[in-house]
Amino acid sequence: MDHDMPGMSGMEATRLIKADEKWRHVSVIYFSSRVDIKQLADMAGADDWLSKPFRTEDLVRLAGNHV
Fold first, then answer.
1. What is the second-level CATH architecture of the domain 10-64?
2. pLDDT per residue as tens digits for the range 17-44
3. Residue 47 pLDDT > 90
4. What is residue 63's three-state secondary structure?
5. Which residues contact 62 (CB under 8 A, 6 or more apart)?
């Protein structure tokens, strides 16, 4: 989930996902180029985070931790 998206922020989208019983089990990896990404991810309720730019291998590794 990117923090800066048009129409709805990643924080709003993540909170909606995590608030819905039907979707709360879905893992959300939050990412942004902002220096406060870890704090933003925690505030959103994300399961993990990555700083942009990131390597594909890092995303695959994190996703594998949440299956």
1. 3-Layer(aba) Sandwich (3.40)
2. 999 999 999 999 999 999 999 999 999 9
3. yes
4. helix
5. 29, 48, 50
With CA atoms as reference, report the closest residue to 47 among 22, 9, 17. Answer: 17
Within its chain, how far is the Cα of 58 from the centroid?
A: 14
**Which residues on adjacent β-strands are paired with residue 2?**
31
pLDDT at site 67: 83
- pTM: predicted TM-score of the whole model, two decimal places: 0.88
Distance of CA 17 to the CA centre of its chain: 11
Integer Cα distance of 8 and 60 in angstroms: 25
Q: Is the peptide bond before 6 cis (omega within 30 degrees of 0)?
A: no
